[in-house]
Amino acid sequence: MATPPKTFRIKSFGCQMNVYDGERMAEMLGAEGMRAADDGEDAELVVLNTCHIREKAAEKAYSDVGRLRREDGSRPLIALAGCVAQAEGAEAQRRTSMIDMVVGPQAYHRLPQMVAEAAAGRRVVDTDLPALTKFNALPARRRTGPSAFLTVQEGCDKFCTYCVVPYTRGAEISRPFASIVAEARALVDGGAREITLLGQNVNAWSDGDRCLDALIRALDRLDGLERIRYTTSHPMDMSDALIAAHGEVAKLMPYLHLPVQSGSDRILKAMNRSHDAEGYVRLIERFRAARPDIAISGDFIVGFPGESEADFEATLRIVDAVRYAAAYSFKYSPRPGTPAAAMDDQVSLEVMDERLQRLQARIAEHSQAFNRASVGRSTRILIDRKGRRPGQMIGKSPWLQSVHVEAEAEIGAMLDVTLVSAGPNSLGGVLAHRQAAA
């Protein structure tokens, strides 16, 4: 391509931090005079913002690259970004000549420069891991939706034996307090009513003597901000002050995502999780003492190497003990270079499939029970999209449930509703004044 591209499309896969990174890359390219391609339009630049958490992630990324070749043999400029880019590095360009740029998750602030070099015919790679450099180079936040992500912490020092994050995102780093508050202010000025603080171990965030609870309390004072959330946390980084904040900060939503991964202490030790099942349950009880209506979400891995039926039964028991409002569950996926990938006694796919079905059925029981117990509550929902039917809008409850309601409302409106019905994946609401009139 002799001239720089004028249109772009960013395809983000995986975690919420990738969504945030994708948004920031779009803002950078927009600041360079490019525009997002319209639906159905062939973009001149495509950025594949990849995730490396699952097995065969690299193969999927190369398959996605191959599909970008057009029928006439032409193709856009292609940037491989994200964690697959970090893991593959220059090898990505050796595997296929279609990739013009390889940019890791800590180097995407250089994307506009890399695009210019690629347009001039040079193939470029940047997978350095400089601490915090990219945040200082990103453009100011502009218009946003009613809910916005805000990365405050990156990287991980925990080295769980199944996880690639320490290798693809680097060591734990925290953004400065003032920088985060300034970005939060800009997000609110741009239309955000709710901000979710993001980090691989978000509750490890600190700046001097300030920890995550102090940051949350500072954001609580921002006029125009209605809701605060944070994800994802590690049990070992939970503090008394953060637990107390759930009972004291009105804008902090009653929702906690706290992965446990397994209910078996033997498996947790093999995972290098640094906590045991009993301690995790006690921690949840402390959160519920601070905020009795809190919704608990978690992560589970089934079929970790050496997992026996007894180990799996322990996982079912912790599901019953915690009574999750929601949870994400996955079959163990060996990641190249991680200790678990070389462990003996790998569990067969058939056993993993069967256990995952049982686990998801048990989680669904508790999730549906949580939703049914919500019926009759009066609460506020944040409208974030239109429903399927004319006049129907959908918003999020404080407990992160999807609630559909018949209402004339704009995206971003806060509506007072009464929850009147519960399904497996959403709830029905009625505007509070209509319920009162009835």
CATH C-level label of the largest domain: Alpha Beta
The number of helical elements comes to 15
Gyration radius from CA atoms, angstroms: 23 Å
Tell me roughly what share of residues is in helical segments.
25-40%
Question: What features would you highlight for this structure?
Answer:
438 residues; alpha/beta; Rossmann fold; pyruvate-formate lyase- activating enzyme; OB fold (Dihydrolipoamide Acetyltransferase, E2P); 3 domains; 6-stranded parallel β-sheet; 5-stranded mixed beta barrel; 15 helices; globular
Structure, described:
The protein folds into three domains: 120 residues, Methylthiotransferase, N-terminal domain (Rossmann fold); 239 residues, Alpha-Beta Horseshoe (pyruvate-formate lyase- activating enzyme), CATH 3.80.30; 60 residues, Nucleic acid-binding proteins (OB fold (Dihydrolipoamide Acetyltransferase, E2P), Beta Barrel). 35% of the residues lie in helices and 22% in strands. The protein has 15 helices and 21 strands. The chain starts with 6 loop residues before the first strand and ends with a helix. It has a six-stranded parallel β-sheet, with helices on both faces. Strand 3, helix 2 and strand 4 form a beta-alpha-beta unit.
